[in-house]
Amino acid sequence: MKQDNIFITGPPRSGKSTLVREILEEMNFKAEGLRTPEIREGGERKGFKLVDIDSSEEGILAHVDVEEGPRVSRYRVDMEDLDRLTERSLADISDDCDIVVIDEIGTMELYSDYFVEKMEELLDSKKPVLAVLHRNQVKKYENQGELFDLEKEDYASVKRKIKDILKDF
Predict the structure, then answer these.
(1) Residue (of 25, 9, 20, 94) closest to 54 by Cα position
(2) What is the pLDDT of residues 32-48, one digit of tens each?
(3) 86, 74 in Cβ contact below 8 A?
(4) For residue 83, what are the contacts with CB-CB under 8 A and spacing of at least 6?
(5) pLDDT tens, 48-79?
(6) E-assigned strands of 56-125?
(7) Residues 130-144: pLDDT tens digits?
(8) What pLDDT, on a 0 to 100 scale, did the predictor assign at position 2?
(9) Which domain holds residue 108?
């Protein structure tokens, strides 16, 4: 097991992505990678964006209005944007990057063989990876790093533990 990979899991809306963002802000890391924030319209979730952390370039991961691509719940995955942003965000991590962030490793992202390939390369690389792990993917990846579960552990305690681990990098 590579000791410097950190996974955060938990139920929807438990604060996984917020925790990652707060840790990055508080530790002042040079981060690269990929975020997948919600797309909300009129208070309703319509899909998920892909955002390159370094450049802020955006695409669509999945949306109710995407007409082609794998279906996950009521969304369809935009495979073209997923592969394009994966290449932009995960394929060529710079030497001055302190930490790679993948938010998240989930069902939608795993439809892309390219995403899986790049993500697994990063999990085996020398760079520490901080990733949100969808609860359905825990068994597959839990042995590749340290896992924190926001359903079973206190948010503040998890944050403190992760920051303690990362301060050594």
Answers:
(1) 94
(2) 999 999 999 999 999 99
(3) no
(4) 112, 114, 115
(5) 999 999 999 999 999 999 999 999 999 999 99
(6) 58-63, 71-72, 75-77, 99-105
(7) 999 999 999 999 899
(8) 52
(9) 5-166
Number of domains observed in the structure of the chain: 1
Tell me the residue type at 105: I
- Structure tokens belonging to residue 56: 């802020």
Say which CATH number the domain at 157 has.
3.40.50.300
Task: Give the CB-side neighbour count of residue 133, counting CA atoms within 13 A.
Answer: 26
pTM score over 0.70:
yes
**Polymer length of the chain:** 169
> Please, are residues 59 and 78 in contact by the beta-carbon 8 Å criterion?
yes
In degrees to the nearest 10, what's the CA dihedral of 54, 107, 21, 12?
A: 160
CA neighbours closer than 13 Å in the CB half-sphere of residue 153: 17
Q: Which of 40, 39, 82 is nearest to 61 (CA)?
A: 82
Residues 94 and 75: beta-carbon distance below 8 Å? no
